[in-house]
Amino acid sequence: MTPYKSEPPLGGSRAHIKSIFPSLAPSEQRVAQLCLDSPETVARMSVADLVTQTGTSPATIVRACKSMGFDGFQHLRQVLLRDLGAAARDSIQQEESGATGEPGSSEHLVSGIFSRASQDIRGALGSLDFEAFDAAVKAIRQGGRLLVVANGASLAPAQSLALRFLSAGVQCEAPSDIVSQHISAKLLSAGDVCIAVSDSGMNSFTIGSARIAAERKATVIGVTSYAKSELADLSTHTLVAGAEFHSWNDQLPIGNIVQMLVLSALHAAVTADSPDVERARSAVFEEVLHMVENPE
């Protein structure tokens, strides 16, 4: 996957840098980490200041900026300043509304969780390449067989996507066991599509299915949080989002929510403006209604 083709959307710089971070060299990671920890400091720095702060060199600074998908240090500073300004405006608006979402605030716990989720999700698209997304939609629409594979925590979102495709009349396979996933991938051929979902991009079982699908010349659509991962390397089109929201101590699974939203957007784009889809949805509704009214 190539670096991001244009600057991240408003508020998306952290998500973008996080998605690239694991692939950076250790010296480049020091630069990226400072951007994540103290963006306001980096935004006020010169290249010489950043060299001193990170213990690197001017060449490393330039290389790190390029690796993160920016034209150079000045471009990085501009994006950080832009997002800092947006964050300041959001903070003021939250204080004025009283919706801080923090423990001990007057806001109810449920409202606070929703407020925080909406704020965090806003920047999650910083690492998503819209051109790759559009290409993935086109591949599914024009493709033959459609296989969805995932394991672990990514299995539930993947199974939900498959059910939604089936409910829209799109033929889709989504076996839940590893052996069936590999066998189904082995039966794919050129023109078919495999959607592989792995948050880390490193789940060996999901990678196995994706690799088999790629060997069979099928189009592989990888859905992951990291732009430089094994799954991304295998994929024809990689959809990256959610790298910023990974913490075992966090009770709010923003990463999972982002993953589900990306898959939902993929489903919506594939099935949009299709008379066949509307007919299929009507048929599914009638069948479900029959099951509810006649349980036996």
Radius of gyration: 21 Å
Number of strands: 4
Structural class: alpha/beta
Mean residue pLDDT? 84
Enumerate how many helices there are, as a single number.
14
Relative strand content: 5-15%
Strand sequence of the main sheet, in spatial order?
A: 1-2-3-4
* Biggest β-sheet strands, sense, barrel: 4 strands, parallel
Element-level helix/strand string: HHHHHHHHEHHEHEHEHH
**CA-CA gap between termini:** 51 Å
**Helix fraction bin:** 55-70%
Backbone shape = globular
Give the low-confidence spans.
1-5
Model description:
It contains 14 helices and four strands. It has helices spanning about 15-20, 25-35, 40-45, 45-55, 60-65, 75-95, 110-120, 130-140, 155-165, 180-185, 205-215, 230-235, 255-270, 275-295, and strands at about 145-150, 195, 220-225, 235-240. It has a four-stranded parallel beta sheet, sandwiched between helices. Helix 2 (about 25-35) packs across helix 5 (about 60-65) and helix 8 (about 130-140) packs across helix 13. The longest helix is centred in the first third of the chain and has 25 residues, at about 75-95. The radius of gyration is 21 Å and the shape is globular. The model is unreliable at about 1-5 (pLDDT under 50).
Give me a quick take on this structure.
The chain is built from 14 helices and four strands. The chain has 296 residues and is an alpha/beta fold.
Topology of helices and strands:
Elements: H1 13-20, H2 26-37, H3 39-43, H4 47-54, H5 58-67, H6 73-97, H7 109-122, H8 130-142, E1 146-150, H9 155-167, H10 178-186, E2 193-197, H11 204-215, E3 219-224, H12 230-234, E4 237-240, H13 254-271, H14 275-293
Parallel strand pairs: 1-2, 2-3, 3-4
